[in-house]
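Supplementary Methods. Inverse-folding protocol.

Structures were first reduced to a discrete structure-token string of length 222. This string, shown here, constituted the complete conditioning input.
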């Protein structure tokens, strides 16, 4: 059996679900547009250039979720999926995930974006296993804090290994291990697997992958 891991944002999606969720909250009047957009865009730029302070970002991005009842958040997320996510789902991404599932691989989406935002997206792709940053809850409401290790940079390795251990598996349990990602932030996990694949990568990751002979593919072009 093979293990196949997928990054989500800008890999299987033609955009970033975390950033899109923030913009959606602005559009719905949940947060102040000017203040939120300025900060959200700054964090997104830091993510893209590899300088993101994940703890500071999580404190920012999870705070609005603590203000609303869960039922209201769930209703907002249904609209978010329809209006913001479904239009950026990459058909070739759906096909690639299905190819690995049909081959019998153990497949997971591994993403720094929190599980509230991403769990319905994973289901849309038909992926049972999601390894995402966990937003803490108390009495059925989000607290505005994260629980445990964020699935970011080296944290992705830690979270994947804990997931495998929960099933009495480890890296050596698989004939092949694959990871598809667009981002230089995922270099730790890309370096961990046997077959790292750069997907529509940024310039830094493209150069790194080319130098090491990693496959470079596009899910946005046929």
């Amino acid at each position: 059996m093979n293990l196949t891991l997928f990054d989500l944002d800008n890999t299987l999606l033609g955009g970033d679900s975390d950033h899109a969720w923030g913009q959606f909250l602005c559009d719905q009047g949940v947060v102040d547009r000017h203040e939120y957009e300025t900060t959200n865009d700054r964090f997104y730029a830091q993510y893209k250039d590899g300088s993101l302070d994940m703890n500071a970002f999580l404190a920012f991005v999870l705070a609005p979720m603590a203000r609303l009842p869960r039922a209201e958040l769930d209703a907002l997320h249904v609209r978010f999926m329809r209006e913001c996510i479904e239009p950026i789902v990459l058909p070739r991404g759906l096909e690639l995930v299905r190819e690995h599932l049909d081959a019998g691989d153990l497949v997971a989406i591994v993403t720094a974006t929190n599980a509230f935002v991403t769990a319905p997206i994973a289901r849309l792709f038909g992926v049972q296993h999601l390894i995402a940053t966990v937003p803490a809850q108390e009495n059925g409401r989000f607290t505005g804090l994260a629980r445990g290790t964020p699935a970011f940079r080296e944290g992705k390795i830690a979270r994947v290994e804990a997931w495998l251990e929960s099933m009495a598996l480890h890296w050596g349990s698989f004939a092949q291990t694959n990871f598809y990602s667009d981002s230089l932030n995922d270099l730790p996990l890309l370096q961990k697997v046997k077959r790292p694949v750069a997907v529509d990568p940024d310039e830094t990751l493209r150069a790194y992958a080319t130098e090491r002979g990693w496959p470079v593919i596009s899910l946005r072009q046929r």
